[in-house]
Amino acid sequence: xSARTISPNMALDQLVxxxxxxxxxxxxxxxxxxxxxxxPALVERLTAGARRSAYGPVVGDLxxxxxxxxWFARRRxxxxxxxxxLAPGSKPLLMALQMAVPGDVVLxxxxxxTYAPQATAMGKRVYRLxxxxxxxxxxxxxxxxxxxxxxxAAGGDPRIVVLTLPDNPTGTHAxxxxxxxxxxIARELDxxxxxxxxxxxxxxxPDAPFLSPAEVAPERxxxxxxxxxxLALGGWRVGAARxxxxxxxxxxxxxxxxxxxxxxxxxxxxxxxxxxxxxAEPAELSAHIARSTRLHATVAHAVYELLTAAGVSCRRxxxxxxxxxxxxxxxxxxxxxxxxxxxxxxHRFLEHAKVAVLGGHHLGDRPHALRFRIATCQLYGATxxxxxxxxxxxxxxxxxxxxxxxSRIEESLVKLFH
Length: 418
Ligand SMILES: Cc1ncc(COP(=O)(O)O)c(C=O)c1O
What we know:
The protein is α/β, with parallel strands linked by helices. The protein has helices at residues 8-21, 40-48, 62-73, 90-100, 115-121, 141-153, 176-188, 213-216, 247-263, 269-279, 283-309, 331-336, 342-352, 384-392, 400-415, and strands at 27-28, 84-87, 104-109, 126-130, 158-164, 192-196, 221-226, 239-242, 322-323, 355-356, 358-359, 372-375. The chain has 2 domains: 8-38 and 284-415, Aspartate Aminotransferase, domain 1 (Alpha-Beta Complex); 41-281, Aspartate Aminotransferase, domain 2. Helix 3 (62-73) packs parallel to helix 10 (269-279), helix 4 (90-100) packs across helix 9 and helix 6 (141-153) runs parallel beside helix 7 (176-188). The protein is globular.
């Protein structure tokens, strides 16, 4: 992390905003922000909390932590509120963990663009491991054993493995058998698992089997989550971490709280009110999340079908609102146009097709690969009204603004070559 660079997805978002302000018509698929109107009851809770101007406890109010503990308990993870820390987003909690826990870090390749800069900012080495062919968010288990053993033999100190379940950027989630295998190896190698489950409620099939590593290796798994994705509240900044029971968990929780006390002090007072309501999952809010997730799934699958019909290979999405296409099959044709890697591919998409995508190199992928991330959550419309229509529609794909955006993706694949 350099003092002068900002996170690549945020930099791209700003660039698109600037170019749009100058009149350019850009289809923005580069930023993973769920664009949906705020659910009205959340606005009521925020307003009700407006007078909560005192600092409050570093780890969060007991009421809000009780709600988060209940949220985990309903996901087969019985939790005491003392195991929870709330913060302004899960990003600072992930950073605090990197500060609090010694040792180097193992990341899947590709992985969300923030993990590596956070680790390197703390002077840690990052080991990147390929993900399985059918899903992302987890390194290939056997590779994990080999790479960790080799790294240790060479003087490295890998002690943390970060998983993303469901995954950004591949839009998939790892099956339970893989999680079990991975947990067994983490235990054998004495690795701490950081399981980023911020997309936990954005599983396309709510009945799809989902296993948290915290169910399998509870003594060594920290889970992070938040309200940015399931409720489209990124700008409100509400995140939470669940620490393991027992001495190790208590030690990490205290270390993260210590960082919190020196950096952000506490989650903002009004947001404690929001967190207490949202994590308690009242029926009307669960229905809203289910509707949002149906929309995310429908649009992600439509784009997946469109890409694969055009010959672009891609993992079939099962969660979150991303796709991670690979244009290796078109390497020769792209090479004629000067596109040799994901940076030049990202550039060509923006300049020739007026579509913003995030090149795989920003996500730790091999720069030479022709892979990139598409955030399909940007296709629901630019205004609250259009987004609400998308949310309410029986078939959002038939709405003119959504179907136009999908056609534009199809056209962009043609324009890329002209
Ligand atoms: C995998 C992943 N983890 C964490 C975050 C950050 O979330 P928060 O808004 O809670 O800081 C994001 C946001 O893009 C993400 O994609």
